[in-house]
Amino acid sequence: MVHVNYLAVLVAAVAVFVLGWLWYSPLLFYKPWMRLRGMDPVAAMAGAKMPGGKLLIELVRCLVLAYVIARFVALLGVSGGLGAVHFGLSLWVGFPVILLTGSVLWENIPWKLAAIHAGDWLVKMLVIPIIVSAWR
């Protein structure tokens, strides 16, 4: 039986949810993200409101991601900060980077837009294993 610390999963999920919000906020990458999507950042911000349903779905996505990573951390015996970072980097390269590269190659997604998303995924793939491995 694999032991998963559900409190660590919750903390990791909330942490990456908040960091994701910050990543795509005007404090960091909102303007280039919107421009690369073909939208005017100023006009989009003027009529912007926080869509509660989408935020709830995003929180659930973060919870599922944190739980799955916590299971892998437990199953693989990942421990220590360096082990968590190596594991997170492996996950990042093996999944989001590969998927985003496919989007750039085959769906004509601008590479700069993919890079913004890849950065967000890098943060998630590092923060979650660090939190759940430290809190086992």
Q: Secondary structure elements and their pairing?
A:
Elements: H1 6-23, H2 30-36, H3 41-46, H4 52-76, H5 80-107, H6 111-134
Helix pairs in contact: 1-4, 1-6, 4-6, 5-6
Q: Would you mind describing this structure in some detail?
A:
By secondary structure, this protein is an all-alpha fold. It has one domain (6-134). 79% of the residues lie in helices and 0% in strands. The chain contains six helices and no strands. The protein has helices at 6-23, 30-36, 41-46, 52-76, 80-107, 111-134. The radius of gyration is 16 Å and the shape is globular.
Binned strand content: under 5%
What do the pLDDT scores average to? 94
Q: How far apart, in Å, are the first and last alpha carbons?
A: 14 Å
Whole-number tally of structural domains: 1
Q: Order of SSEs, N→C?
A: HHHHHH
Q: Please outline the major beta sheet.
A: none
How many separate helices?
Answer: 6
Give the overall form: globular
Instruction: Supply Rg.
Output: 16 Å
* Quantity of strands, as a count: 0
Structural class: mainly alpha
Could you list the spans in which at least 5 consecutive residues all have pLDDT below 50?
Answer: none
Helix content: over 70%
